[in-house]
């Protein structure tokens, strides 16, 4: 959550609309927005759910305590991702999806990549990824490789027996 001042360039002042000098802005997922005391109506929830079920991540923007926007972000998987997962599985390699996205978005992506629903870890914060990797290492008593992008994945890449850093999550 932040306070934004002098945001005049976001508005068309030629319409005569009065623009305040200061805005309280919160941008984030349902959890963050809920912690800010904002509740979403059923129409907004339905719209977000529809996008999430298509593999989009929905980000909410609240300005001065009121819903302002829903921004959806998607990063389509590569066309050969499913065949790569199938090949790994044919070699006896268990493939999991470990993501910060919510379960609906994660399930849509996993379905495209032929990853079984029971192998999805969704809503995992960057700090939690290390413990998920450790849990897989202990449960299966095997080597774990992790593919990750971004600075947030660095600790989990280190915890994995093989860490593979890539440019974007869909690479």
Tell me the strand order in the biggest sheet.
1-2-3-4
End-to-end separation in angstroms reads: 31 Å
Overall SS class: alpha/beta
Tell me the total number of β-strands.
8
Q: How many strands, what sense, and barrel or not for the largest sheet?
A: 4 strands, antiparallel
Nearest-integer average pLDDT:
84
Q: What is the percentage of strand-forming residues?
A: 15-25%
- Uncertain regions: pLDDT < 50 for 5+ in a row? 6-16
Helical fraction? 25-40%
Which H/E pattern describes the elements? EEHHEEHEHEHEHE
Overall shape: it is elongated
Tell me the number of helical segments per DSSP (H or I, 4 or more residues long).
Answer: 6
- Radius of gyration, in angstroms, nearest whole number: 20 Å
